[in-house]
Specification:
The chain is of the alpha/beta class and 131 residues long. The chain is 37% helix and 18% strand. The protein contains 4 helices and 5 strands. It has a 5-stranded parallel β-sheet.
């Protein structure tokens, strides 16, 4: 698989500071630029205000978020970002059913670093083929 460009901007959505720190380090080491949101509301604000920060190329989100589930967040996000690559990470295996028709890549935690990077690069490459 070809290497994804190092300048891809990833929105990491998770309210657990330890998980954020670990995933941020993994993705930065892989060459991605990371923007962090700790809630669905904050993530939607970033995605709906593209002139306020970097253009987001993909989203990596937890399923359990304060105020809204990851599935609610994805449904809201899809209204303005229908083709945004989204990777959902969760320890709740039954949650996958909540994402039917949401066009996401679903992974059960724990996700090994190499798998997270591979899945993210594949999602970005797939988007590039569609555009």
């Amino acid at each position: 698989m070809p290497e994804q460009k190092a300048s891809a901007n990833i929105l990491l959505v998770d309210d657990d500071p330890v998980q954020v720190q670990i995933r941020e380090a993994i993705l930065r080491d892989a060459g991605f630029n990371i923007t962090i949101a700790t809630s669905a509301e904050a993530a939607l604000a970033l995605l709906c205000a593209p002139n306020e920060g970097p253009k987001i190329d993909a989203v990596v989100t937890d399923h359990v978020l304060p105020g809204a589930s990851g599935a609610d967040f994805v449904r809201d996000m899809r209204r303005s970002n229908p083709s945004m690559p989204v990777i959902v990470l969760t320890g709740m295996l039954t949650a996958e059913a909540e994402y039917c028709d949401s066009d996401v890549t679903f992974r059960a935690k724990p996700v090994p670093p190499a798998e997270l990077i591979e899945v993210l690069r594949a999602a970005l490459a797939q988007r590039g083929r569609r555009e």
